[in-house]
Amino acid sequence: MKEGYAEVEHALRSCSSVDECRDALHRVNPNLGLIDCKDSVDLANVIVDQNNACTINPSRSAAILLRNFYSDDRIEQITKKILTDCIADPHTTNLDPLTTPDQRAKMVEEYEQMCSNNASELNTCLLRKLRWSSLGVHYDWTRRTYRGTSASDMPQWACHLYQDALEAADDVSGSSLSKGGYRPQAALVNFFHSHRTSDRLGGHKDDVEARDQSPLVILALGLPCVFLLGGDTKAGITPAPILFNSGDVLVLSKEARQWFHGVPTILKSSVNRPHHPDGSVADVLKRTRLSVSIREVWGCALMQILSNDRSSHDEAIIREREELAKEAPRTAFWKAQRKLRAVQTLETMKKEAAEKYTSKVRE
Question: Which among 248, 264, 297 is the end of a domain?
């Protein structure tokens, strides 16, 4: 019987080093190893399907690992942009219902002061409670849908990363993803803190986007991890355990866009990073794993229609956040999160946008 996703995920959950991961995988299956290639690689020939057969046809290349896509300097530049621009308004974070814009703006300053003082309460500071930030079209974690009435501009570095990664994937696999006309419309930044073992990512599919066959680009920053890449079901398919280092990029497209994937464990850093003038950036990279996943949501035509209606809802969203901030001290965090809902569901928005688009075409 083949080991499914859950068995491999469970075996890796308590590992904190590469050697421990290899031992755990060997106990599950003596033939199952950790993918630790030194160069960029087309993962098509290491992903098994339901019949335990490998995908080896280059024309169907769907999962591309780009090793060392970014240098240390570029990693620190992007991390600094995330810590300064991407966790503040108009982007959204898990801390929005409980904090004010001023508090979020001072998160990094507070963290840096604690780092310099070697404060024992470092894990209690606000930045260490940050779990995610939503850029571009905002994602509703409770309803697992996108809020077209709430959006912020996509950062230029994220747009460049998306296109550059598709071009690099084409070079590795011989595909033509960069010529598919795909546009990055949303990005999720996830923060996995080393001190909190609950900060792991269970096996899941990124399948709520209307354009769910468009490429998904994932950038790893900070601590290394094991990235599990499975198939279209968890049962009966042994996932590929991939060592995912800081600066690596994974491109999932075509059938791989609907494969289960996740991060069962965060590893201890094996690299002593040089001192950086911005102490908070260097410390975050040593203590935290950041994952930036960039994707297309609806396509260009629908996005243009929705953007025309965005401004009319901004004030309503701001008022809703203010009410949640008042209520948060008396309400459990998860309840406050659940109340931070979309003004309209994705299904309603798609229907209305389609009607508007049809009307414009007829005119």
Answer: 297
> pTM higher than 0.85, yes or no?
no
Q: What is the dihedral of CA 69, 70, 75, 78, to 10 degrees?
A: -90
Mean pLDDT of the chain: 76
DSSP symbol at 276: -
Most distant pair of Cα atoms in the chain: their distance? 66
Calpha distance 57→175 (Å, rounded): 11
Q: How far apart are CA 266 and CA 13, in angstroms?
A: 9
Question: What average pLDDT score do residues 270-299 get?
Answer: 75
Instruction: Please indicate if the annotation marks 72 as binding a ligand.
Output: no
Last residue of a domain, one of 297, 320, 337: 297
Which of 85-89, 105-109, 165-169, 287-291 comes out lowest in average pLDDT?
105-109
Q: Tell me: is residue 261 an annotated ligand-binding position.
A: yes
pLDDT tens readout for residues 296-310: 987 654 444 445 444
Per the annotation, does 138 bind a ligand?
no
Q: What does each C-alpha distance from 57 to 18, 175, 215, 260, 354 come to in angstroms?
A: 30, 11, 18, 21, 37
- Burial string for 280-291 (b: 16+ CB within 10 Å, else e) reads bbbbbbebbbbb
Reading the block at residue 342, the tokens are 């979309």
Query: Checking DSSP bridges between strand 240-244 and strand 41-42, what pairing results, if any?
Result: unpaired
The answer, yes or no, to whether residue 277 has pLDDT greater than 60, is no
Cβ-based neighbours of 77, under 8 Å, separated by 6 or more = none
- 104, 90 Cβ separation under 8 angstroms: no
Q: What CATH number should be reported for the domain holding residue 41?
A: 2.60.120.590
Calpha distance 258→205 (Å, rounded): 6
pLDDT of residue 23: 93
- Rounded Cα distance between 116 and 131, Å, is 23
Q: Determine the structural domain holding residue 326 and report its residue range.
A: 301-362
